[in-house]
Amino acid sequence: MSPQSKSPRSQFPCPGIEQYGRLHGRIYCMKLVQLMFKRETLVPMLALAFASVVSVVLVIGRIVWTRDTHLSFLLWNLFLAWMPMVFAVLAREHEKDGRTTSWRFFAFGAAWLLFFPNAPYIFTDIIHLSHYYSRFWADLILILINALTGMVLGFLSLYLMQSSVRRMAGVWMSWLFIGGVAMLSGFGICIGRFMRLNSWDIVAPGKMFQVIGNWTRQTPVGYSLGFSILFAAFLFVTYLMLYALTHLSPGQLNPTAAAKERDL
Where are the strands (E) in 39-185, listed by range? Predict the structure, then answer.
């Protein structure tokens, strides 16, 4: 075969469609970034972006320094921890008002719920530190930095979704929503850690139910149920504490303002 007859393996048959697809993808990504870094969420998003960059740099630094890719999975897990935030932002973009919502809101909301357990899941990566070794504490801190970043990412997306539920159904229903998400996430994390299933395995329900069935036959139900409830409690209590901290009024922390209020 002559060199002229060879064509690149990745050449797209219709360059015009390929260019349009790339341009449309870039525009969509730019719009998504604009949605995520709106003024009302700018400060926490910048902090989480900074924390994510630091986490990635530390993981890559460990790999280069030790020539060991043992903790490289943290990079993928941190990427998955960003997915709930993406879907929460897209869901809220298609929320019309407190009474009517677009079907896209529920579609993105379902995707958010499906991927939400990936955010706090990184805490379970501590299981890889099964014994003490020379870099134990350094690796523990590295996992905790990634885990904390992932969990706060998830909690920010959870707060956005809770605010939507509050507008549609009221305050009490929004907290019932938090409890339900915490319980489902505890079960989802149990499935991911011990049954090794992923969020996208829902497209293969046969495989998913087979794996869950095998697990329940080999493992006492109380073990899975206990882990799910404990992790759900951990998520709910942690979210409640962060929620309370974010609702502190600056005036309440100002001694001068507090004294004036007492005088009045």
Answer: none
Output DSSP code: residue 102: -
208 neighbors 201 (Cβ within 8 angstroms): yes
The set of residues, in sequence order, having a beta carbon less than 8 Å from that of 221 and lying 6+ positions away, is none
> Distance (Å, rounded) from C-alpha 106 to C-alpha 83?
16
From the CB of residue 264, how many other CB atoms can be counted at a distance below 10 Å? 5
What confidence tens digit (pLDDT) does each residue in 136-180 have?
999 999 999 999 999 999 999 999 999 999 988 999 999 999 999
Phi and psi torsions of 199, nearest 5° = -60, -35
Instruction: Report the predicted TM-score, pTM, of the whole model to 2 decimal places.
Output: 0.82
| Assigned token pair, 199 | 């969020």
User: By the 8 A CB rule, do 166 and 97 touch?
Assistant: no
- Output the CA angle 157-77-95, nearest 5 degrees: 20
